[in-house]
Amino acid sequence: MSEVLDPPVTGPVAPVLAAVSSQLDRLRTAELWRHDDAEAVAALDAAYALIAKSQAVVMRLVADAARRDVDSDAGAPSMQAWLRARYRLRPAEAKRDLELAGLLARGEKDPYRVDAEDRAPGEGAAVA
């Protein structure tokens, strides 16, 4: 099954992004009421893990875009300004994304994040 992404994506990542997008579309219409409580929590855990993985991919793409100077090519005064305008990010979000992308590009771990594999199952923030 092939899906056209909006905006269209080409190159080696296109088929993977299309497949992920297609699967996420299927999840949007899933009958969540069919889950028991444990399954619902497990699904929520998995969804949050997907967000983290997705964000890591975004940061790799941000680092690659910065390396390619796409901001200059687009006439933006900076990469931060380009991110803000193109993706409607708040200034602090664009700055954070650039800093995190830079850390990851240098092989450093995000000091503000505990990865799922660094935590025992069910361990996380306390619920008030």
In short:
This protein is mainly alpha-helical.
Structure description:
The chain is mainly α. It folds into two domains: 1-30, no CATH class; 36-110. The protein contains five helices and no strands. The protein is elongated, with a radius of gyration of 18 Å. The protein starts with 13 loop residues before the first helix and ends in a 23-residue tail after the last helix.
Helix and strand layout, with pairings?
Elements (H helix, E strand, L loop, with lengths): L13 H15 L8 H31 L2 H4 L5 H9 L3 H15 L23
Helix pairs in contact: 2-5, 4-5
**Helix/strand/pairing class, anyone?**
mainly alpha
Mean residue pLDDT = 84
β-strand percent reads: under 5%
Principal-axis shape equals elongated
What's the helix-strand series?
A: HHHHH
Write down the domain tally: 2
Rg, Cα atoms, Å: 18 Å
Main beta sheet, described? none
Number of strands: 0
Distance between the termini: 44 Å
Low-confidence stretches: none
Proportion in helices: 55-70%
* Tally of helical runs: 5
List keywords for this structure.
elongated; 5 helices; 128 residues; mainly alpha; 2 domains; 0% strand; 58% helix
